[in-house]
Specification:
With 376 residues, the chain is α/β, with parallel strands linked by helices. The protein has two domains: 1-110 and 274-376, 3-Layer(aba) Sandwich (Isopropylmalate Dehydrogenase), CATH 3.40.718; 135-271, Isopropylmalate Dehydrogenase (3-Layer(aba) Sandwich), CATH 3.40.718.10. The chain has eleven helices and 14 strands. It has helices spanning 17-35, 48-54, 60-68, 92-101, 171-188, 210-226, 237-246, 258-271, 309-326, 329-348, 362-373, and strands at residues 6-13, 39-43, 71-76, 106-112, 119-121, 124-126, 135-141, 151-156, 159-165, 199-204, 231-236, 253-256, 279-283, 288-292. The strands form three sheets. A ten-stranded mixed β-sheet has the order 2-1-3-14-13-4-7-12-10-11, sandwiched between helices. Strands 5-6 form a two-stranded antiparallel sheet. Strands 8-9 form a two-stranded antiparallel sheet. Bound molecules: nicotinamide-adenine-dinucleotide. Nicotinamide-adenine-dinucleotide (NAD) is lined by residues 16, 20, 76-80, 89, 95, 274-276, 291, 294-298, 306-307, 310, 355.
């Protein structure tokens, strides 16, 4: 059922995080005005610089507000040289506190190349891939694998001699993210650009790793029993990296365990124009958090220079999620408007940041997207 107003928590974080979140907020405000939506924003400081100032990575009321919210938008956390006593980066407990604390088990990362966007390779902007060939989504398991707390180190006489990270893979963890991948392929409906087939690819290392063997087994069980209309496809992660670059058009939806997904999605971002264009959603059954996949980009912080589109598209994904969750057509229409405006600005190519070959400030790109929203 739709709600009269949706509670949105903004967590700007460190470095360029607050700058890109401010642009995303402008765009969300313009979208709500145009479509008669009501978003109630709450903003909380968090991250490494907040930790340095207060001794806390975020305030207790911030997590409570996230838990009660309809959507969360995070900028980025982390700053060089500010670490926690346990060795993790300061800000770690914001990101992982949300992923684990709200059980956001599926990290969904669309890789879509908008017409007009070129990719920087060897310092040159190039058009290697055609926009019609790059339209896939990678889902990454978000709550287990190598990122669980099942790790440790052996230190003798002040020297760390052994470090162990355990790759924890469970049937439950596999099943729920794999199910989300098949559901997404069905919902997208358009299949892979190459042949229009609805296809889910298991990215794993089942030739070596036990955890990957369980992942594949569950992948087959779920696919066979519940999604016979969706093709099942398999790739070892090393081979996947070269296939992704050589023929992205073959892929529709791909699914991976935590660490493998983390790595391949950064590679995939190159196909869509780089970190400034790549957004992700961390989805659970009851909560969701959205973020650009980039970090706090310290060397660019405070310069109004980085690309805000990744964060704006994260906001767009949040509206899409709210629209689907509550059956709210206005939220879905607002999400479509934002995406169309981003696509139009990229296609025109006049107001773009440095990473896409432009000379515009970040805030000018934000303004241009807001302007375009009135016309698309
Ligand atoms: N989810 C998160 O909050 C997150 C993710 C990654 C890194 N981090 C943290 O961020 C800090 C910096 O990490 P890093 O330098 O490895 O990664 P980063 O993503 O901040 O920067 C890497 C490079 O990506 C490019 N880039 C990043 N954001 C961009 C944007 N909006 N537009 C255009 N180009 C952009 C820049 O060229 C930058 O040099 C570290 O403390 C790290 O731990 C946080």
């Amino acid at each position: 059922m739709t709600k009269a107003a949706y509670d949105v928590v903004l967590l700007p974080g460190d470095g360029t995080g607050p700058e890109v979140v401010a642009q995303a907020r402008r765009v969300l405000e313009a979208a709500q005005e145009r479509h008669g939506l009501a978003l109630r924003f709450q903003e909380f400081p968090c991250g490494a610089l907040h930790y340095k100032k207060t001794g806390r990575e975020w305030e207790p009321e911030a997590f409570a507000a996230c838990k009660a919210s309809d959507g969360i938008l995070l900028g980025a956390v982390g700053w060089p040289g500010i670490d926690l006593p346990d060795g993790n980066i300061a800000g770690y407990n914001v990101l992982f506190g949300l992923r684990f604390g709200l059980d956001l088990y599926a990290n969904v990362r669309p890789t879509k190349l908008y017409p007009g966007v070129r990719h920087a390779i060897s310092g040159q902007l190039q058009s290697v891939w055609k926009p019609q060939n790059v339209d896939l989504v990678i889902l990454r398991e978000n709550t287990e694998g190598l990122y669980t707390n099942a790790h440790g180190a052996l230190t003798r006489g002040g020297v760390t001699e052994v470090a162990i990270d355990n790759n924890v893979i469970t049937r439950k963890g596999c099943e729920r993210v794999i199910r989300k991948a098949f559901e997404l392929s069905r919902r997208r409906g358009r299949g892979a650009p190459k042949d229009g087939k609805k296809r889910v690819t298991s990215i794993d290392k089942a030739n070596v790793l036990r955890g990957s063997q369980l992942f594949r087994q569950v992948f087959d069980e779920v696919g066979q029993s519940s999604y016979p209309d969706v093709e099942r496809d398999y790739a070892f992660v090393d081979a996947y990296c070269q296939w992704l670059v050589r023929q992205p058009e073959y892929y529709d939806v791909c699914v991976a365990t935590n660490m493998l997904g983390d790595i391949v999605t950064d590679l995939a971002s190159v196909l869509q124009g780089g970190m400034g264009m790549a957004a992700g959603g961390n989805l659970g059954d009851a909560h969701a958090m959205f973020e650009p996949i980039h970090g706090s980009s310290p060397k660019h912080a405070g310069k109004d220079s980085v690309n805000p589109i990744a964060c704006i598209l994260a906001g767009q994904m949040m509206l899409q999620w709210i629209g689907e969750r509550y059956g709210d057509d206005k939220a879905l229409a607002a999400a479509r408007t934002i995406e169309s405006a981003v696509a139009a600005v990229c296609a025109e190519g006049k107001v773009l940041t440095y990473d896409l070959g432009g000379t515009a400030r970040m805030s000018e790109v934000g303004s241009e997207i807001v302007r375009k929203m009135a016309t698309v």
